[in-house]
What we know:
The protein is mostly beta strands. About 0% of the residues lie in helices and about 40% in strands. The protein contains no helices and 16 strands. The strands form four sheets. It has a five-stranded mixed β-barrel. It has a four-stranded mixed β-sheet with strand order 1-6-7-3, with no helix packed on it. A three-stranded antiparallel β-sheet has the order 2-5-4, with no helix packed on it.
Amino acid sequence: MDERGRIKNGDLVLPGDYLGVIEEYFPGKGVKEENGELYAIRAGRVHIDSERMEISVEPVTDTPPLPEVGDIIIGRIIEVKPQAAIVQLVKIEGREDEREIATSKLAGIHVSQVKGGYVDSLLNEFRIGDIVRATVISNEKSPIQLSTRGVDFGVVYALCTRCRSPLIRRGDKLICPKCGHVETRKLSSFYRKLKV
């Protein structure tokens, strides 16, 4: 802090520490705005980008990464309910460290965030054990909220619900090469193209 008690570049802050007001800076990563005031949401060092008028908090500890809004995650479906699918987060795509994810590691995909248009049953979109590619749309509270809207998001790997063989994509359907069973999912354009 400077002599007037204001936060400056490089200051060490803790979650909940007051950083300033929205009139001074835009909130960057690690910062949230509440009623026009800016607060740290993680421990770290303050970084002020005076060109962009943005204040952020960069982590200094070697903690596992937290999924941020806009991050693309890879996860495994562990439960399918009428209104939501529960996802166990595996990794954040594009993070060079590729370490385990921090937080409870659970996320949800609400029925309204599966795809554009009406979804009759989530069982036609996801099954337990499916690997999905999704984007983080909210990390304010647990579980983190995900979306699979868009052609690049959805199931990237699935097993046959009858014989557990890996399913092969044929158009918008999945076919089991072993038993011939046909299934549907909310498929990603990356189906069986990602290393999972």
